[in-house]
């Protein structure tokens, strides 16, 4: 009987918090606060005014994003090739048919391509949801901490006049 092969050395994955700032370099360089959700299979980006069109005979989509939470004044118009359309079931059980794009994301010193479904997330707390498919084999998530892979953005509060 041959000896048991030695197990592969454990690979330490870098940690992420339950929320992180993510850069979308091909989508206007937007910096978006995302909820890292291992309970969600796919990733989703808040998009509105979604308009499909053909570019060189291939399906594309033009859309607007609001990169900042609770701020609808600033928007960025972007375009991306459509990978496919997919039925996605929300946590509330509602199914919708969404366009799926592939775009690079930057987080924790890494850059990789992620599939994103485009949906209205106006009523959600985060403009982006980073699901387990996007982070599998790259990171572990510490659900009790925030911004382990990115720095929190601190905004200056406006001074109140007396």
From TrEMBL:
Pfam families in the cross-refs: Zn_protease (PF05618)
Origin superkingdom: Bacteria
InterPro entries, A to Z: Asp_endopeptidase, Peptidase_aspartic_dom_sf
Domain Retropepsin-like aspartic endopeptidase: start-end pairs: 16-148
Protein name: Retropepsin-like aspartic endopeptidase domain-containing protein
């Amino acid at each position: 009987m041959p000896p048991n092969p030695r197990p592969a050395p454990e690979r330490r994955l870098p940690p992420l918090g339950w929320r992180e700032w993510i850069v979308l370099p091909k989508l206007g360089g937007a910096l978006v606060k995302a909820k890292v959700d291992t309970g969600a299979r796919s990733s989703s980006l808040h998009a509105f005014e979604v308009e499909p069109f053909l570019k060189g005979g291939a399906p594309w989509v033009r859309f607007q994003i609001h990169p900042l939470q609770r701020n609808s004044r600033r928007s960025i118009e972007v375009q991306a090739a459509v990978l496919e359309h997919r039925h996605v079931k929300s946590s509330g059980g509602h199914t919708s048919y969404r366009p799926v794009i592939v775009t690079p994301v930057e987080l924790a010193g890494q850059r990789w391509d992620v599939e994103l479904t485009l949906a209205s997330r106006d009523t959600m707390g985060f403009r982006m949801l980073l699901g387990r498919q996007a982070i599998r084999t790259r990171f572990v998530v510490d659900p009790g901490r925030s911004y382990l892979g990115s720095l929190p953005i601190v905004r200056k509060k406006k001074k109140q006049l007396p």
